[in-house]
């Protein structure tokens, strides 16, 4: 039988060549085409001629020794990030594109992976290497890109407020405290039509030999001429996502209320919510009833967010990117859309709501004896504020709390009394540092600053939530389901040594050996109760502590003195709690929407790092916004004097916290007097080299406000009071009087005026 001879390879047609080139995602050149079509050396010369013809008529083009079909993007492309779309996604355009031949450059929507950490993502102005895929057209964009590498960041980008010039152009007032007093000139052609008061991002140029450095506006971020605008600065300075994506909102709007299916019916249990009067979230409810032997059964029910936010959904992806809600005095940047957080997962009175509940039995000593988790349908009996609940217990009921006092509120407080006994035995770190709250007027400006009173109602909810968080961690550990812990490490050796040196200056000993436990600090704090340095010692002890964080590995919670602890009680505003809810659903077999089996410790370790970073970002943004609001509030009081306390000591000067508002400002060392002030690090003090005058951490001082920079949130003070002078440094009889200090001259001038 004769073998059929193989067909001789032939040159592909023009259409076949173009189709082959268009399909390739990797390198494609003459060699790859010849190999694909089986062309030998004799035919390669003809192939090259065909490719030259295709290139000359514009059908294909060569980029970096690779052939591409004309008018299309290769799989890997160098691109410039130029803008954002209405969903907040970054848009890039290819670096090389023949607009004359193929029209406007195609836009590429950048995909931000889940593991991208705050500060590591690409931004507008960056040059990036992208892996590009063609997708279905979405808003006129049919390419999606994944950042392989950030090739180049733009010239220095500065965030600031644009101040227009009537003759054209303007100047930039930076929002960063580190750039206080520095401005940039914006030429008439570089404003991007920014209006006076707009928050803008500016790309700065090379500083000239004379005059202001220059820059051009590359992004307009919003106007500060409107209400609720101050927080915009922190939102953009820290790249906090604040506009929900369309697919996230569509998914939230399409969500339907949970049904009774697969849930226990607990609607007759009179759970109540107790929150601050201005609370935005109402996702936890509580109940307590006496048990035999003097104990109590405590129930904590938390909105079942996991029913609506399922793994891998659009809501889930965006919640992970946000990590947590961010709370400003003028707005909230929520982790989840309002349809979820303020509607379906808000435990409104007398409305059916899905929840995940834990029932905990405690003894008369406050120790937990047992607990069980349940997926339930509940109906809140009432929504109360802390003040309402406390007033009722103190004998001042209203129309809401009157009927609730005996059956609901008194058992809650009795259970709390039992928990306080267990807390006293456990000895968590007991710091007493007042938290100030900024109240705003309708126009968004500061009305006043208050220190809300901490009542037993506040502490009751805190203790109930801590108990529920411990129960969640114990359940997941026992079931061997991975979880995200809330951990707090003990202070470092370096911080303990520094604290020991400081306490020694107050004649307070700190033990050098033995296990470090919170009760050691508590003994020191109790010694200082009612003394002048009470607040000072509280602050220094706080600064010696490590920062709490999220971790897939458990090393305990030092501050609470707990071996295991996990956040379970607020999945509306913290992604960590959502992970714990899913873990409990998986562990207790409460549904099919639990933690996926693919979520092992490695995945949770990555998520823990991400949400710890977003938490720190939120804390910094909230603090900076408060500073800016207070600086605006005090800007028209230049020259006024205030009482305050030294809140920080640095070789460059003193930080002073005002008693009235809690505002922080700075006293430069060069303005402290007519002598050199030496920084005494162990004593946390500045000491005058000639007079021995000392200003130390915690000292009460009087200062004059000499400068306020509202945009940067910075205040500068001048000292009006004198520091302490130790007996060893008092001026001997007959010795020459030291040169007057500025505070002394000021007081003498004031006496003359009087």
The residue-averaged pLDDT reads 85
- The number of strands is 34
Q: Estimate the helix proportion, in percent.
A: 25-40%
- Label the structural class: alpha+beta
| Overall spatial form | globular
Total number of helical segments? 18
Spatial gap, N to C terminus: 128 Å
Estimate nothing, just give the exact number of structural domains. 5
Weakly predicted, low-confidence segments = 63-70, 730-741
Radius of gyration: 33 Å
- Name the strands of the widest sheet in spatial order: 3-4-5-7-6
Major sheet characteristics: 5 strands, mixed, barrel
Strand content bin: 25-35%
Features:
single chain; 754 residues; alpha+beta; Arc Repressor Mutant, subunit A; OB fold (Dihydrolipoamide Acetyltransferase, E2P); 5 domains; five-stranded mixed β-barrel; five-stranded antiparallel sheet; 18 helices; 34 strands
What do these coordinates show?
- The structure is a single chain.
- This protein has 754 residues and is an alpha+beta fold.
- It has five domains: 14-69, Arc Repressor Mutant, subunit A, CATH 1.10.10; 76-152, OB fold (Dihydrolipoamide Acetyltransferase, E2P), CATH 2.40.50; 157-225, OB fold (Dihydrolipoamide Acetyltransferase, E2P), CATH 2.40.50.700; 246-489 and 546-623, no CATH class; 638-753, OB fold (Dihydrolipoamide Acetyltransferase, E2P) (Beta Barrel), CATH 2.40.50.140.
- It is 29% helix and 27% strand.
- The longest helix has 34 residues, at 601-634.
- It is globular, with a radius of gyration of 33 Å.
């Amino acid at each position: 039988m004769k073998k059929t001879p193989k067909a001789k390879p032939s040159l592909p047609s023009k259409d076949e060549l173009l189709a082959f080139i268009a399909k390739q995602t990797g390198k494609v050149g003459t060699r790859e085409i010849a190999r694909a079509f089986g062309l030998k050396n004799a035919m390669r010369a003809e192939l090259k001629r065909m490719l030259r013809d295709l290139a000359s008529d514009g059908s294909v083009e060569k980029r970096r020794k690779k052939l591409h079909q004309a008018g299309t993007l290769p799989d890997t492309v160098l691109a410039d990030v130029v803008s954002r779309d209405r969903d907040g996604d970054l848009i890039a355009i290819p670096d090389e594109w023949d607009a004359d031949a193929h029209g406007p450059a195609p836009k590429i929507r950048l995909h931000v992976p889940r593991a991208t950490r705050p500060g590591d993502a690409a931004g507008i102005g960056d040059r990036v290497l992208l892996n590009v895929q063609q997708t279905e057209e979405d808003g006129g964009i049919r390419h999606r890109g994944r950042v392989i590498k950030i090739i180049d960041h733009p010239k220095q980008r500065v965030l600031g407020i644009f101040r227009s010039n009537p003759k054209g152009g303007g100047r930039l007032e930076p929002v960063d405290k580190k750039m206080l007093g520095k401005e940039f000139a914006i030429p008439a052609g570089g404003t991007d039509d920014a209006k006076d008061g707009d928050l803008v991002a500016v790309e700065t140029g090379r500083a000239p030999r004379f005059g202001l450095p220059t820059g051009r506006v590359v992004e307009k971020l919003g106007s500060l001429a409107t209400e609720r605008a101050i927080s915009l600065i922190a939102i953009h300075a820290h790249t906090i996502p604040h506009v929900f994506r369309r697919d996230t909102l569509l998914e939230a709007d399409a969500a339907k209320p949970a049904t009774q299916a697969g849930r226990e019916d607990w609607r007759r249990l009179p759970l109540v919510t107790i929150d601050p009067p201005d609370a935005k979230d109402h996702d936890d409810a509580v109940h307590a009833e006496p048990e035999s032997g003097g104990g109590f059964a405590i129930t904590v029910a938390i909105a079942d967010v996991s029913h609506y936010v399922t793994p891998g959904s659009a809501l889930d992806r965006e919640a992970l990117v946000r990590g947590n809600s961010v709370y400003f005095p003028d707005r909230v940047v929520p982790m989840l859309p309002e349809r979820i957080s303020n509607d379906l997962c808000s435990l409104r009175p007398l409305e059916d709501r899905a929840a995940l509940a834990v029932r905990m039995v405690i003894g008369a000593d406050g120790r937990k004896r047992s607990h069980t988790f349940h997926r339930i349908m509940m109906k809140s009996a009432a929504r109360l504020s802390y003040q309402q609940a406390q007033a009722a217990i103190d004998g001042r009921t209203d129309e809401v709390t009157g009927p609730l006092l005996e059956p609901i509120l008194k058992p809650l407080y009795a259970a709390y009394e039992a928990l306080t006994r267990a807390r006293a035995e456990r000895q968590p770190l007991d710091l007493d540092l007042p938290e100030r709250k900024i109240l705003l007027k309708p126009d968004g400006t500061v009305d006043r600053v208050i220190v809300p009173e901490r009542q037993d109602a506040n502490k009751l909810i805190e203790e109930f939530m801590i108990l529920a968080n411990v129960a969640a961690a114990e359940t997941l550990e026992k079931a061997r389901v991975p979880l995200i812990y809330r951990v707090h490490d003990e202070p470092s050796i370096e911080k303990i040594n520094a604290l020991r040196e400081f306490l020694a200056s107050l004649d307070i000993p700190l033990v050098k050996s033995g296990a470090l436990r919170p009760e050691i600090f508590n003994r020191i704090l109790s010694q200082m109760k009612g003394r002048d340095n009470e607040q000072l010692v509280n602050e220094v002890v706080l600064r010696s502590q490590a920062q709490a964080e999220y971790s897939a590995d458990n090393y305990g919670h030092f501050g609470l003195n707990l071996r295991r602890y996990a956040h379970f009680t607020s999945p509306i505003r913290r992604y960590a709690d959502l992970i714990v809810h899913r873990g409990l659903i998986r562990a207790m077999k409460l549904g099919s929407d639990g933690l996926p089996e693919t979520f092992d410790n490695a995945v949770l370790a990555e998520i823990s790092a991400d949400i710890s970073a977003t938490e720190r970002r939120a804390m910094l943004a909230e603090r900076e916004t408060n500073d800016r609001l207070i600086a605006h509030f005090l800007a028209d009081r230049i020259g006024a004097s205030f009482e305050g306390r030294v809140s920080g000591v640095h070789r460059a000067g003193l930080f002073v916290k005002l008693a009235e508002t809690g505002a922080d400002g700075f006293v430069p060392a060069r303005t402290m007097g007519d002598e050199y002030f030496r920084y005494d690090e162990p004593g946390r003090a500045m000491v005058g080299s000639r007079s021995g005058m000392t200003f130390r951490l915690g000292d009460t001082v009087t200062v004059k406000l000499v400068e306020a920079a509202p945009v940067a949130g910075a205040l500068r003070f001048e000292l009006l009071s004198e520091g302490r002078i130790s007996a060893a440094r008092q001026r001997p009889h007959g010795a020459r009087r030291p040169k007057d200090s500025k505070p002394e001259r000021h007081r003498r001038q004031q006496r003359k005026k009087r």
